Amino acid sequence: MATKEEIVAGLADIVNEIAGIPTEDVQLDKSFTDDLDVDSLSMVEVVVAAEEQFGVKIPDDDVKNLKTVGDAVDYILKAQG
Amino acid sequence: MSPTNRTVVVTGIGATTPLGGDSASTWEALLAGRSGVSTLPQEWAADLPVRIAAQIAVEPGEILPRPLARKLDRSAQFALIAAREAWADAGFTAKAGEDAAVDPDRLGAVIASGIGGVTTLLDQYDILKNQGVRKVSPHTVPMLMPNSPAANVGIEVNARAGVHTPVSACASGAEAIGYAIEMIRTGRADVVVAGGTEAAIHPLPIVAFGNMMAMSKNNDDPQGASRPYDSDRNGFVLGEGAGVIVLESAEHAAARGARVYVEAVGQGISADAHHITQPEPTGRGIAAALQNLLDATDLKPAEIVHVNAHATSTPQGDVAEVKALRKVFGHDVDHMAVSATKSMTGHLLGGAGGIETVATVLALHHRLAPPTINLDNPDPEVDADIVRGEPRPLPAGTIAALNNSFGFGGHNVVLALRTPSV
């Protein structure tokens, strides 16, 4: 079970790998699309990588609700539980 | 201004090829007669009947940022690298609109490839089979679609007058440049980024071309395998890379004080309607393309001093092309220095017309025709002056050159370039 901090750090690595954004810029209040250069296609990659890393399922219908890094962290925390 | 018959010029060139990571290093290697063919180092190649290819000299991953590269098929990566070089070489410092010298609504992009994102298609199918549905990249479709190199280059330079991808197998790159010439000549655009790209070094295309008996199997002599016009030629060698040029209306180039390499005089196009892969043996279709070029432009056979031939090193194709030159130009062929640069670059399929146009532009610009290597025993049926050994100086004054490209399907495209009138 990953902690909130571990999830943020994990997402930061994933966003860095996919979009080339420095990990320190991946903060809870950042929007994937507007701040982190993650378009709708790259968001699918982020989701698949996060599912694998944190052992959760994020159905396609829920992805559109994950606007910010914080949204994704909360979702993953709940889904782990 | 007559919008229907404008003069078109070339103001920028770019390339990434088996001979070098840009047009300057490629040109230097062409003049030096260097082969870009080598043994494929990949494990998958070990048991194939063809184990040689002309692989890119500088891996695109060394140039493009990783987040960008991972969303582009290799063919689009090559095109983007060559287009960036050509764009900067033309003197533009930012994309259209941001560089006030070019209006996005008057800028086009026409980039072709023969087979599109074939490695993406095959690699993603392997992922689907081996790792499952979820692992297939969401970028697969925009990576594999054949218009992806054109679209990505268009977005890069902000081209809004039209983005196109003509597909005609190994004539695709030349057809793209011909299409771009027409866009400018007829007034649809003032500037067009155009060329060809290909990235098909993968076991399936290699085995498939090999099973057609189209490729050289001289695995023990990679650098000697591509030997256009030689009596011992036995097929082409697959190459990869891209060549892109910036075409511009002469007025537009003059207004911004751009350097003009050459005039793009025009094109001649025809189709064999003969066989899906075999060239028409008498060169009838190629001759028709050459005649159409003469009929459509003010080009004079006496001006043509250089031909960058299609000459892929196949037994039939090389001879048919020369027959066609003789049929249309007669004794004028005697003053044409013919170069088969595929002897060094291998055959880039849809990329060939792109890099060979870059080579032809530079041949006129520097007045030097590159040599044809591996021509040890010229085929007696080849009745033309093939440049061998050292590069051949081309004459002073107004001179013109042809770049020929022909494709499976019977597509014939001939482009004509000429030194600019001063």
Any descriptors?
heterodimer, A: 81 residues, mainly alpha, Non-ribosomal Peptide Synthetase Peptidyl Carrier Protein, Chain A, 63% helix, globular, B: 422 residues, alpha/beta, Peroxisomal Thiolase, Chain A, domain 1, two-stranded antiparallel ribbon, 33% helix
Short description:
The complex is a heterodimer of chains A (81) and B (422). Chain A is an all-alpha fold and 81 residues long. Chain A contains 5 helices and no strands.
**Helix proportion of chain A:** 55-70%
Low-confidence stretches of chain B: none
Largest contact between chains:
A-B, 10 and 12 residues
Strand order in the largest sheet of chain B: 5-4-6-7-1-8-15-14-9-10-12
How far the N terminus sits from the C terminus of chain B, by CA atoms, comes to 21 Å
**Order of helix and strand elements from N to C terminus of chain B:** EHEEHHEHHHEHEHHEHEHEHEHHEEEEE
Any idea how many domains of chain A? 1
Number of domains of chain B: 2
Strand content of chain B: 15-25%
Helix and strand sequence of chain A: HHHHH
CATH superfamily of the largest domain in chain B: Thiolase/Chalcone synthase
The total of helices of chain B stands at 14
User: Which sheet architecture does the biggest sheet of chain B show?
Assistant: 11 strands, mixed
How far is the first residue's CA from the last residue's CA of chain A? 8 Å
Structural class of chain B: alpha/beta
Radius of gyration of chain A, in Å, reads 11 Å
Total strands of chain B: the figure is 15
CATH architecture of the largest domain in chain B: 3-Layer(aba) Sandwich
Subcellular location (chain A): Cytoplasm
Modified residues (O-(pantetheine 4'-phosphoryl)serine) (chain A): 40
GO cellular component, one term (chain A): cytosol
GO molecular function, one term (chain A): acyl carrier activity
Structural features, described:
- Chain A is an all-alpha fold and 81 residues long.
- Chain A has a single domain, classed as Non-ribosomal Peptide Synthetase Peptidyl Carrier Protein, Chain A, CATH 1.10.1200.10.
- Helix content of chain A is 63%, strand content 0%.
- The longest helix of chain A has 16 residues, at 4-19.
- Chain A is globular and about 30 Å long.
- Chain A starts with a helix and ends with a helix.
- Chain B is an alpha/beta fold and 422 residues long.
- Chain B has 2 domains: 8-256, Peroxisomal Thiolase, Chain A, domain 1 (3-Layer(aba) Sandwich); 266-418, Peroxisomal Thiolase, Chain A, domain 1 (3-Layer(aba) Sandwich).
- Chain B has helices at residues 23-32, 66-69, 74-89, 118-131, 140-144, 148-157, 172-185, 203-211, 222-225, 250-255, 284-296, 315-329, 342-345, 352-366; strands at 8-16, 38-39, 52-53, 107-112, 162-164, 191-198, 241-249, 262-271, 304-308, 337-339, 368-369, 385-386, 392-393, 400-407, 411-418.
- Chain B is built from 14 helices and 15 strands.
- In chain B, the strands form 3 sheets. Chain B has an 11-stranded mixed β-sheet with strand order 5-4-6-7-1-8-15-14-9-10-12, sandwiched between helices. A two-stranded antiparallel sheet of chain B has the order 2-3. A two-stranded antiparallel ribbon of chain B has the order 11-13.
- In chain B, helix 7 packs across helix 14 (352-366).
- Chain B is globular, with a radius of gyration of 20 Å.
- Classes of the chains: A mainly alpha (81), B alpha/beta (422).
- Chain B: Keywords: Acyltransferase, Fatty acid biosynthesis, Fatty acid metabolism, Lipid biosynthesis, Lipid metabolism, Transferase.
- Chain B: The active site is at residue 170.
- Chain B: Belongs to the thiolase-like superfamily. Beta-ketoacyl-ACP synthases family.
